[in-house]
Amino acid sequence: xxxxxxxxxxxxxxxxxxxxxxxxxxxxxxxxxxxxxxxxxxxxxxxxxxxxxxxxxxxxxxxxxxxxxxxxxxxxxxxxxxxxxxxxxxxxxxxxxxxxxxxxxxxxxxxxxxxxxxxxxxxxxxxxxxxxxxxxxxxxxxxxxxxxxxxxxxxxxxxxxxxxxxxxxxxxxxxxxxxxxxxxxxxxxxxxxxxxxxxxxxxxxxxxxxxxxxxxxxxxxxxxxxxxxxxxxxxxxxxxxxxxxxxxxxxxxxxxxxxxxxxxxxxxxxxxxxxxxxxxxxxxxxxx
Length: 288
Hints:
about 10% strand, Histidine phosphatase, five-stranded mixed beta sheet, single chain, Rossmann fold, alpha/beta, 7 strands, 9 helices, phosphatase activity
């Protein structure tokens, strides 16, 4: 069964369910999909969503609610770039914001001239910005982030405490040096290993096409080729793909919350029948 030819088993408490989401269409995608060199355009610095991108966000939001997925997610992790933040709060936010002292908005109204209403954090899962799941770093202006303090003003209820550990400014992006594919993959694996330090069991991750593609290429080699293809294929804008990651190395030490040990009462008559039968055979052998 472990050859990848059929189903296999693994303890539930050593698994996490992750819902991988690529951001909706950004302004850089429109020309960049036609001509890769367009990604060098400085006008696309920290590119935000297009009107079509916001429609994609609205459609995905309807899906996560109608499918029941919204109620299952314990945490949303987001790359701290404008297009991913807009996607994350639009899909997983709490809906229209009404001015209340006890509720902070996830996104302020008309953020970066988006024309969108404010989004509430009420009943939303926590949203945490994490640098490790950013897009391919360097050279392309669209992949350079703003200062964390700017994002905190635009997205008040998003947790940027991890994104600002390095610096308020973007010290990871270099104008003349772009990460190699191998470096992106290594960063992605480091990110997945970090997930095991989290207590949450069902996590949505809003990130980028390049990050997902190069990270996921490392997985599925022990599966059927069609499964490997399903894992590794490129993500469309605003595509959501649900997967399970397992801890084969015992790195996660959380005990199961659903396992029950089952206690065997003392006394031979109360032993399970197969064990009691073995005991009887042993006794008969010793008496003969």
